[in-house]
Automatic annotation (TrEMBL):
Residues 1-23 form the signal peptide. This is Uncharacterized protein. InterPro entries: CHIT_BIND_RR_consensus, Cuticle_Struct_Prot, Insect_cuticle. One of its GO terms (cellular component) is chitin-based extracellular matrix. It comes from the Eukaryota. The keyword Repeat does not apply. PROSITE patterns: CHIT_BIND_RR_1, CHIT_BIND_RR_2. It comes from Aquatica leii. Keywords: Cuticle, Signal. The keyword Signal applies. GO terms for molecular function: structural constituent of chitin-based larval cuticle.
Length: 146
């Protein structure tokens, strides 16, 4: 009887040890997000308006960004630019990273997990090429009021 109880105790002790080891691999889940510590923080503003910043939180979010004015002083091509990236560990335990640029062409993000749009159909590509090659024909609707 004592041997059976001792065997059960060894099995339970082993399971507890394995559980503790596995819990150490899982990132700590904060129940109150106001308690998440900032591990690293840096912000560098410059006199010309450009800046750099980065930070890291206690639960694995890492972000960095820089901003500047492109073609400063040229009103025709001057544009504000923001470039950066951030990463985080999702609920599935996978690290997700997003790189982005925001400029005169809009906001563009890239990441392995972000869906890609389907390719533009060939007929639409031909139509765009035709409209670019013959703008006087593609703008004919402006001459007539329907």
């Amino acid at each position: 009887m004592f041997k059976i109880l001792f065997q059960i105790f060894k099995i339970l002790a082993s399971l507890c040890f394995i559980s503790v080891v596995e819990l150490q691999r899982i990132p700590y889940q904060y129940s109150n997000l106001h308690q998440v510590p900032i591990v690293k923080l840096s912000y560098e503003p410059n006199p010309d308006g450009s800046y750099n910043y980065n930070y890291e939180t206690g639960h694995g979010i890492v972000a960095q960004q820089r901003g500047y004015v492109k073609n400063l002083g040229n009103p025709q091509t001057e544009a504000q630019v923001v470039e950066g990236s951030y990463s985080y560990i999702g609920p599935d335990g996978i690290q997700y990273t997003v790189n982005y640029v925001a400029d005169e062409n809009g906001f563009h993000a890239q990441g392995a997990h972000i869906p890609k749009p389907p390719p533009v159909p060939e007929a639409i590509q031909r139509s765009i090429a035709f409209n670019s090659a013959y703008p006087e024909i593609s703008n004919i609707h402006k001459k007539f009021k329907f």
